[in-house]
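COMPLEX REQUEST
Ligand: uridine-5'-diphosphate
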Amino acid sequence: MILVIGGAGYIGSHVVKVLLKTKEVIVLDNLSTGHRWAVDERAVFVNGDLGNVEDLKALFSSYSIDAVMHFAASSLVGESVVNPMKYYLNNVSSTLTLLNTMLDFNIDKFIFSSTAATYGIPTTDLITEDTPTNPINPYGQSKLMVEKILADLSKAVDMKYVVLRYFNAAGAHQTGEIGEAHNPETHLIPIILQHLLGQREQISVFGSDYETEDGTCIRDYIHVTDLANAHILALDALINGSKNTATYNLGNGLGYSVKEVIEMCEKVTGKKANVVTGDRRLGDPAKLVTSSDKIHNELGWNTEYSLFEIINTAWEWEKSRVDNLDLINN
Ligand code: UDP
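STATUS: Structure written out below.
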């Protein structure tokens, strides 16, 4: 059985759906940001906290867990700058409690959600796993700390792991059952689409004086189902023993500026956005685009969704939520 911590969240809930094709799944989530409705009903659901050692012990004693996937984290760059303690407590301290309890129960396979924010301001145009890490915000720092702890652990004790550094996850499940539902929403694509649906007055572009072609930040947007598929490959590699430790970047290898994303949203929806330029957001690097050659070459991962398709699935999802206010508010 695979334990998915944070399986009620945006990325975790998509991974649960893919995992269920071949595995039994148990989800641990405290529902602080996740949603009970997002958890596929075929998975066992436990409402608990990964920082609570009693919750973990109860779970590890009751179920036979082969591997743990860990998605439960605070993940907002701007918030991490103003409230770093939240990030070190939720992302580092709780993960240590989890890893320590896993060791007590001899659970030795771990998939860790990390981030492009570990790179800080990258030294190259196209990031690879060899690009030096140098986070410029507490969110990236907190994830890198866990990566370093994992590296030390794996040398000393029985702990096999894959670190997956996500670039910008976006889009929704192709069935329309689940998608992005943060409250409050801070991510670019849902914000643009909610504006185009009439739920927000305008879109604010956070800075137009970056050293990029149009002055706005460039990111590498990757569909959440493509991300989910990478987790399955990583898990298989741990289970079949082809990997004991690995770190992979997950992106499409294509950079889109904030302005280009807005234009693509206008194209997908056929609607015109009201855009204003605001101040830069704290902790934002100008450009984050990755090569995903390593995971393609080693595990055979390929991406299927273009930016157009990412936005198209997100648009279908946002439209469907209009008819269900419960999903927006819970
Ligand atoms: N962004 C923006 N306006 C918004 C939300 C985001 O200009 O209302 C920008 C943000 O500064 C960043 C990019 O869009 O350059 C992607 O931000 P998001 O929060 O979606 O993801 P992040 O890169 O922080 O993981």
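REMARKS: The chain has a mean pLDDT of 96. Residues 77, 168, 186-188, 191, 204-206, 217, 219, 258, 281, 284 surround uridine-5'-diphosphate (CB under 6 Å).
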